[in-house]
Specification:
Order of helices and strands of chain A: EEEHEEHEHHHEHEHEEHEHEEHEH
Number of strands of chain B: 0
Structural class of chain B: mainly alpha
Largest sheet of chain B: none
Shape of chain B: elongated
Number of domains of chain B: 1
CATH superfamily of the largest domain in chain A: P-loop containing nucleotide triphosphate hydrolases
CATH topology of the largest domain in chain A: Rossmann fold
Radius of gyration of chain A: 24 Å
Oligomer: heterodimer
Strand order of the largest sheet of chain A: 6-7-8-3-9-10
Number of strands of chain A: 14
Distance between the termini of chain B: 33 Å
Shape of chain A: elongated
Largest interface: A-B, 35 and 26 residues
Number of domains of chain A: 2
Strand content of chain A: 25-35%
Order of helices and strands of chain B: HHHHHHHHHHHH
Helix content of chain A: 25-40%
Chain lengths: ~300, ~270
């Protein structure tokens, strides 16, 4: 268990008769980024709340940073940092005061607390706003302050619950950069997101959470292999041309309403050229040709729809 | 990975003190930045003091068998000082309830801090605010003619001690009310008894002038014995069994409020 940042077995949680987590297992190596992916209401936040000692599970065991969640909760708390979905900053006091509050609660000596606070404010581009109340910050600034506060105690396991939800594209990329830098220090990152691109960009391993269960787990590449390969999409404007092509191309699947045909393809230059040659020879001329390689969206929809 | 040993008792106590004083600093910072709530709540007892002295004073004074309105000032000041505490603690309930909706409370819960320190910070901050409010209302009372010159230093200290103990008791109850309320409006409503109870006590008229059926309501509540005790200490009237009753009420309410608040705070947040 020592090389696992987070290990969980059979975690369950229900509220009333609504089951939110229906037995999830996690094995997350120390120093890796793990993304829990799922739509709204899949149970991502509940999983974070349980693993960060905020709420207790109804059943199952878990160890975080080597400490048991139920019997050594205080040791777990000493090892983790949490940035929740709703900003965990004190809006009534300034950014700097928020940072010093964290330093005090981590029992750092005054001068060291000040040094770390100033360093982190600088690193997250908040020095200029440090003397302003946090309630006046923009969404991106609040999120940066939130993460800066999480880092004050030097946590070994960091939970980030939807860290980029509600951020504009620029702030999102800044946040991604921040998360990438976190892992270089050997920190384990547990990330939840509803954006497939985010999981693809950041995570070493991804689990898809659906209806309280883990529907699939693996690297982004492994997950993409779970769905049928890529395809070429041919779109027609003339129904007659569409029907001719559909008859000629037996292996294509068609959408009669949209006048489009899907042909399986691995997307290689060689295969694409032979397809084009063949279309020319058959006298088929599509109005639009697009190439589609499988991405996590395909995986996600395949997994969540199959379960329905 | 080895487990760090549980800290020894002295270390735990110093952790509790350290975290509580950090939380207290946070709450005082809030109160200093946003003093309007505290000041608003101060207005009620000061307005009542001026109203009862300058508008109703002569009639009330005659009603309790005194001479002029200065006798009535002496009669109502102890009650109004305790009412000031009740009023301040409504602010406590509101600010605790507001605070619980803040994301930072969730952060505190996931940190290796002494958990009750979040509440202790609120309580100590609120007691300090109560004391300051009592001093302000007391100053207004002295300015309009209240005198307690016959009391000894010991009686003065005992009066101060009673005010602090009373503030501590009501504050813990108010924290419990704040934690049990879904939002600030509900907290404000739920804490209303803290300012209504003194109206049903011996603050404005003696209990034995009230209708017989009503007397038990005035007698069996914390304000009346506390008011009678404070009156005795400041003005030399008889205290009798009210002293012990007042202390018992305070200790009982403080313990009840502490247990209620900590069990609310330790249960899983929604």
């Amino acid at each position: 268990m020592t090389n696992l940042g987070i290990a969980a077995n059979g975690l369950r949680k229900s509220y009333g008769d609504k089951t939110v987590l229906d037995g999830i297992d996690l094995h997350i190596p120390t120093g890796s980024v793990f993304a829990l992916l799922g739509p709204n209401g899949a149970g991502k936040t509940t999983a974070v709340k349980i693993l960060s000692t905020l709420i207790t599970a109804d059943a199952g065991q878990a160890r975080v940073a080597g400490h048991d969640l139920t019997t050594q909760a205080q040791a777990v708390r000493a090892a983790i940092g949490v940035t929740g979905q709703f900003s965990a900053v004190d809006g009534l006091i300034t950014g700097e005061e928020n940072m010093l509050l964290m330093a005090d609660l981590h029992h750092l000596p005054t001068h060291e607390g000040r040094r770390i606070a100033a360093e982190l404010l600088d690193r997250f581009d908040l020095t200029e706003a440090a003397k302003k109340p946090a309630s006046t910050y923009s969404g991106g600034m609040k999120r940066r302050l939130d993460i800066a506060m999480t880092l004050v105690g030097g946590p070994r396991v960091i939970f980030l619950d939807e860290p980029t939800t509600g951020l504009d594209p620029r702030s999102r990329h800044t946040m991604w950069q921040i998360i990438r830098e976190l892992v270089t220090g050997g920190v384990t990152v547990f990330l939840t997101t509803q954006y497939l691109e985010e999981a693809d960009q950041l995570a070493d391993r991804i689990a898809v959470l659906h209806d309280g269960r883990i529907a699939a787990e693996g690297t982004a590449e492994e997950l993409k292999r779970l769905v049928p390969g890529g395809h070429v999409r041919l779109r027609f404007t003339d129904p007659a041309a569409y029907r001719t092509a559909a008859t000629a191309l037996r292996e294509a699947t068609g959408d009669d309403d949209a006048l489009t045909l899907h042909l399986p393809s691995d997307g290689s230059q060689r295969e694409l050229r032979s397809l084009l040659d063949w279309l020319d020879a058959a006298g088929i001329e599509a109005d639009e040709l697009t190439l589609h390689t499988p991405d996590l969206d395909d995986v996600f929809f395949a997994l969540t729809e199959a379960a329905r | 990975m080895s487990t760090p040993p549980a800290p020894a008792r002295p270390a735990r106590i110093s952790l509790a003190v350290r975290d509580s004083s950090t939380m207290l600093r946070r709450n005082l910072l809030h109160a200093r930045r946003y003093p309007s709530l505290t000041l608003n709540l101060l207005l009620t007892p000061i307005m009542l003091l001026l109203l009862f002295v300058y508008i109703f004073g002569d009639t009330m004074s005659a009603g309790i068998g005194g001479g002029d309105r200065s006798d009535y000032i002496a009669y109502i000041v102890p009650g109004l000082l305790l009412m000031t505490i009740g009023s301040t603690t409504i602010g406590t309930a509101v600010s605790v309830s507001n605070d619980m909706t803040e994301g930072i409370i969730a952060r505190f819960r996931t940190m290796a801090i002494h958990r009750p320190s979040v509440l202790v910070g609120h309580v100590v901050g609120s007691v300090l605010q109560s004391v300051m409010s009592v001093v302000l209302v007391g100053a207004v009372a002295v300015a309009i003619g209240f005198r307690s010159t016959d009391a000894t230093v010991l009686e003065w200290l005992a009066a101060f001690g009673l005010l602090v103990l009373f503030a501590l008791a009501l504050t813990w109850i108010a924290v419990g009310m704040g934690l049990s309320s879904p939002n600030a409006e509900a907290a404000s409503n739920n804490a209303m008894p803290l300012i209504l109870l003194p109206l049903l006590s011996s603050a404005f008229v003696p209990v034995d002038t009230m209708p017989g059926w009503f007397r038990p309501i005035a007698e069996y509540q914390p304000f009346t014995p506390a008011i009678e005790t404070l009156r005795g200490l400041l003005l030399g009237t008889g205290i009798g069994h009210n002293g012990w009753l007042a202390v018992a009420w305070c200790v009982g309410l403080a313990v009840l409020g502490y247990l209620w608040s900590t069990s609310k705070f330790n249960s899983d947040p929604k």
